[in-house]
Amino acid sequence: MPTIVSIQAGRPQAFDYERPADGKSRQWTTAFYKTPITGSVRVGELGVAGDEQADRKNHGGIDKAVLAYAAEHYAYWRPHLALPDMPFGGFGENLTIAGLDESGVCIGDQWQAGQVLFEVSQPRQPCWKMGRRWQIPELPKQVIKNGKSGWYLRVLNEGELAAGQAIRLVSRSHPAWTVARASQLLYHEPDNLAGLEELANVPELSRAWREELLERIARRAG
């Protein structure tokens, strides 16, 4: 059975970085750096207690309350990126889950772990902060290419959560729309209007993704 092997949270922090263009030092603020939580933690409508977002426009909110990531992906990334000590949480996720990945999770799925009931809302869209965190600017492009993105969860029922708990599937309304397929459609099938329309009509899809899909459909149709 799939298991939550680690839970992470982080608050916005300022970090220095060097701009390749001029070699000058700059600062950026991010909550991408997550640290593991020992013991149980409260998970509410807006996410894991103690977890915050620096960019509230593109991160957080009800549709993206919790970010989940497959524990098995680290076996690929650590040697591939020459980062053997990359910890769980290295991709900014709140929940690192063993036994699940993007091909086994569908939009609209409801998953139960202890008291907490989650609903899958969308794939994670990798952004530049991922690359800056590991000083690998092309990392987001690699994630888009191989689909090891992670997925966002709503919290339908609040409660306590702890690492080591099993997470089980409660219901699946859209078995055709795995997170992997949704990502494939968005990034690699720009002319698949029928697919875009079908995914946009999935009720449980996040508002942000639906709006993006509808905008893309309108552009292609025009």
Largest β-sheet summary: 8 strands, mixed
C-alpha-based Rg, rounded:
17 Å
Estimated helix fraction = 10-25%
Query: Helix segment count?
Result: 6
CATH class: Mainly Beta
> So, CATH architecture?
Beta Barrel
Number of domains: 1
User: Beta-sheet strand percentage?
Assistant: 25-35%
**Helix/strand/pairing class, anyone?**
alpha+beta
Arithmetic mean of pLDDT: 94
Please give the number of β-strands. 13
Distance between the termini: 47 Å
CATH level 3 topology? M1 Pyruvate Kinase, Domain 3
CATH homologous superfamily title: PK beta-barrel domain-like
* Element-by-element helix/strand order: EEEEEEEHEEEHHEEEHHH
Largest sheet, order of strands side by side?
Answer: 4-1-8-7-11-10-9-13
Uncertain runs with pLDDT below 50, 5 residues or more? none
Shape: globular
What do these coordinates show?
- The protein has a single domain, classed as PK beta-barrel domain-like (M1 Pyruvate Kinase, Domain 3, Beta Barrel), CATH 2.40.33.20.
- It has six helices and 13 strands.
- It is globular.
- 25% of the residues lie in helices and 28% in strands.
- By secondary structure, the chain is of the alpha+beta class.
Present the secondary structure layout.
Elements: E1 3-9, E2 13-18, E3 25-30, E4 35-36, E5 41-44, E6 47-48, E7 66-70, H1 73-80, E8 95-98, E9 110-113, E10 116-123, H2 128-133, H3 139-146, E11 151-157, E12 159-161, E13 168-171, H4 179-188, H5 193-200, H6 207-221
Parallel strand pairs: 7-8
Antiparallel strand pairs: 1-4, 1-8, 2-3, 5-6, 5-12, 7-11, 9-10, 9-13, 10-11
Helix pairs in contact: 5-6
